[in-house]
Design brief:
Layout (H helix, E strand, L loop, with lengths): L1 H29 L6 H23 L5 H18 L13 H8 L6 H21 L7 H50 L3 E5 L5 E6 L21 H17 L1 E6 L9 E9 L2 E8 L1 H51 L7 H31 L7 E5 H19 L2 E7 L4 E5 H18 L5 E9 L2 E8 L6 H6 L10 H5 L5 H11 L3 E6 L5 E7 L10 E5 L2
Parallel strand pairs: 7-9
Antiparallel strand pairs: 1-2, 1-5, 3-4, 4-5, 6-8, 7-13, 9-10, 10-12, 11-12
């Protein structure tokens, strides 16, 4: 809006000047004042400058103002030279550029207007000194002088009054903006400080922490607001902010030993810092509560893991006796017994084996969660470990009517890993695949090197896993499938696989969808060599 008002004023000012000059020319001609061609040319030049100035002010806005001022200088110099030079009646029009600059309402143009007016006067003076200039008649000179002085006085006065009004309006707007900004600063929730690098407080804005008054902090030292224990650290932070540009610290205020404040400092200039201080007592209380809750949760989790480990040891002792005696009964080492009792002995031994597997899984998981599980790394051929597991699982696959296939590398897979963990990974993956694969299906075990990675992939043609179950699998005691499948396991198999893989620096991934089978892949960086290999295929069913 201000720019539109300035443009309208400049256009009106130039048009008014043009109209006055044109009207005066017409009146003098009608009165028979004897306007000669030089006088007509002088008046026409000034009228043309006014018309061009109005056009430039309307069309080009800010860019045309300097050009209009230069045109006024040329017109003023021409009018002066055509009417007798600096001693002639139109000499005052040499200052027309200054009046035009004021009419544009921009203080920065006044210097250009003054310089242009002096240049026009200098040209007129030089012309009067070295040239024979035309002079109007004495009676006409009086009227021309009145015209020049009148238009210059009124035009310059109008421009200066408009310029002063604009300056007053801008000053008032700046004061209002400053008051609004100060009010906003005084009501924002932090305490803003303008500081010297040494810690002297220059200005204060905003809400001070509880127990302090913002208006009483000016001219104090920041260190006076800090407890003795934290004062040196705060002074170091100010020095670091002055060098590095920013710093932050939390401290106990001197007036409240139970309080807690956070100060953020930024460098504003080589001699000024700006700081933001806020009361962080509630935040510290929340952080303390969260830390206490975290410690309590860790303690409870560690207690659970210790309990599971102890209970597992306590259960394994009598279970070993049960399995040992049931095995003796199965083998009838002390004489024959009836078939029914033999069947009971087989059931006891089978149930004991299942329970022992569960206890071993719980014991391993509790050690891993308690971060007490240590890998027994050794060098071995990974194919041997996988082959041993395949031989062990062959009977279960045959009883379930499932084809158990293996694709093993033809080259040795020299690994530096925990042999038992690698076997456990393969065992758990194959057990899961057999559990979810119906009779007549296929489970394929692939073992191959990928660079330094040992890849163990178990793919089945089973029922697959839903997206909802897929997101949960791999966490302890999480199971997928229907109730029958859930009853067949503890939910620790895949979580142990993932844990063992991560202990070796690897990862486990699951790719599955309902009705399309499942592929579980484990990759671990445990191979000593990465050479070209062939895949050999063997059937284990």
């Amino acid at each position: 809006m201000a720019a539109v008002g300035d443009r309208r004023l400049a256009v009106t000012w130039h048009l008014a000047w043009t109209v006055v000059v044109a009207a005066s020319t017409g009146v003098l001609s009608l009165r028979g004042a004897g306007l000669a061609p030089p006088e007509l040319a002088a008046l026409g030049a000034v009228a043309a400058a006014g018309a061009m100035g109005a056009f430039l002010a309307e069309v080009t806005e800010e860019a045309g103002a300097p050009l209009a001022i230069v045109l006024w200088a040329l017109a003023g110099a021409a009018a002066c030279l055509l009417t007798g030079g600096t001693a002639g009646p139109l000499a005052p029009w040499c200052l027309a550029p200054l009046a035009a600059a004021a009419a544009f309402g921009r203080p920065r143009l006044l210097a250009l207007g003054a310089a242009s007016g002096l240049a026009a006067a200098a040209v007129a003076a030089l012309g009067g000194a070295f040239l024979i200039l035309p002079k109007p008649a004495e009676t006409l000179s009086v009227w021309l002088s009145l015209l020049a002085l009148g238009t210059l006085a009124v035009g310059l006065a109008a421009g200066l009054v408009a310029l002063q009004g604009k300056a007053r309006g801008e000053s008032q707007s700046a004061r209002e903006t400053e008051l609004e900004l100060r009010e906003a600063l005084d009501h924002q929730p932090q305490l803003l400080l303008a500081l010297y690098p040494g810690g002297r407080i220059l200005e204060v804005f905003g809400e001070a922490p509880a127990g302090l008054e913002a208006r009483e902090l000016s001219s104090k030292r920041l260190g006076d607001l800090v407890s003795a224990e934290d004062r040196a650290a705060v002074e170091d932070i100010l020095a670091r902010a002055a060098i590095e540009g920013s710093a932050e610290i939390a401290f106990t205020p001197a007036h409240d030993p139970r309080g807690w404040c956070v100060l953020t400092v930024r460098r504003m200039s080589p001699t000024r810092l700006v700081g933001a201080m806020r009361d962080a007592r509630a935040q510290r209380a929340r952080e303390t509560e969260l830390e206490e809750a975290r410690i309590l949760a860790e303690q409870q989790n560690a207690g659970k893991s210790r309990f599971l480990a102890n209970m597992s040891h306590e259960l394994r002792t009598p279970l070993n006796a049960i399995m040992g005696f049931s095995d003796i009964m199965r083998q009838r080492l002390f004489g024959p017994m009836s078939d029914r009792y033999g069947e009971y002995a087989d059931l006891i031994h089978e149930s004991g084996s299942h329970l022992l597997e569960l206890i071993n899984d719980v014991l391993d998981m509790s050690k891993i969660e308690a971060e007490r599980f240590e890998l027994a790394r050794e060098g071995f051929d990974a194919r041997d470990a996988i082959t041993a597991v395949l031989r062990l699982m062959r009977g279960q696959a045959e009883r379930a009517g499932i084809s158990l296939m293996a694709e093993l590398s033809a080259q040795p897979l020299d690994a530096e890993a925990d042999r038992r963990a690698v076997k456990q990974i393969a065992f758990n993956l194959i057990s899961n695949a057999l559990k979810f694969t119906p009779r007549g299906g296929t489970v394929t075990v692939t073992v191959r090197p990928i660079g330094e990675m040992l890849e163990i992939a178990v793919a089945d043609t089973g029922v697959g896993i839903s997206g909802e179950d897929l997101a949960r699998l791999g966490r302890p005691f999480e199971q997928a499938g229907d109730a029958d499948h859930r009853q067949a396991g503890s939910g620790l198999g895949l979580s142990l696989v993932r844990a063992f893989a991560r202990l070796h620096g690897g990862e486990m991934t699951i790719d599955s969808s309902l009705g399309e089978g499942t592929t579980v892949t484990v990759r671990m960086p445990v191979l000593a060599l990465a050479e070209p290999h062939d895949i050999g295929r063997s059937a284990e069913a």
